[in-house]
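Example 3.
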Amino acid sequence: MDRIPILRMNEFLLVTIQVDMHDRLAMTLQDDLTEQIVRHRARGVLIDISSLEVVDSFIGRMIGNIAAMSRVLDAETVVVGMRPAVAITLVELGLSLPGVRTALSVDKGMDLLRTSFHGTPNGAS
Amino acid sequence: MTEHETRPIRSSEDVVIVRQLVRAWAIRLGFSLVDQTKIVTAASELARNTVDYGGGGIVRLEALSDGRRIGLRLTFEDKGPGIEDLALALKDGYTSGGGLGLGLGGAKRLSNDFELVSKPGEGTRVSITRWR
Ligand SMILES: Nc1ncnc2c1ncn2[C@@H]1O[C@H](COP(=O)(O)OP(=O)(O)O)[C@@H](O)[C@H]1O
Ligand SMILES: [Mg+2]
């Protein structure tokens, strides 16, 4: 597999990382996401990392870059589903993911995005 | 079980293979999920350094026992340019290659024993052990 699929749901983009990504694949995802935020004028990006058993400094940097990039493009990034063992390890690694919003599940993450975009979690403005 | 194993590390695909191999060893040695995650993450950092800075090398995995405890030792070796200033390289945030500069320091924090030996022009060897 040489690309991670990106789903579009109205004004939001959804990425579910289901493989242990090698570094080039992670860089491709970062580029693809930036391109699609612009192309679809996306207002939010949801990254589901619940399948990821390891987040090292490279993946951490990629997540931080995506968040920074989307902020510049007026979109928000929410990372969902980080496993507890991964969270504990990240702290010891020294990675704090500044500026990255997190939520426990895809549903909660979507609520967060909808609230910041529409003002209510159910999408009505 | 095999008490040691050596694998080449040349590409970013090999870094993925090292993560999977270390995970399998940590599970076989009975490490908790958190401890597995810590040593796999440390291994990922060191394997990437071997590729990115060392120009490729090897990793050696060893099961240890000191009579009381079981341990997993990982040794990463390359014949790359080596490290001029070890203290600087270990400093959080220091990178010569556009990374986050957390690999060496992070790997040290994530393991129980840590040894870094490097000679400019000769290469680098980093050894970490996590005890169960
Ligand atoms: N195997 C190696 N050979 C040569 N230099 C290395 C090696 N590993 C690490 N270094 C040096 O130490 C620095 C810090 O490494 P690290 O903490 O992993 O951060 P990063 O990989 O983000 O630069 C690297 O930028 C590099 O200069
Ligand atoms: Mg590194």
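The longest strand of chain A covers residues 12-16. Residues 56 and 90 of chain A are 7 Å apart (CA to CA).
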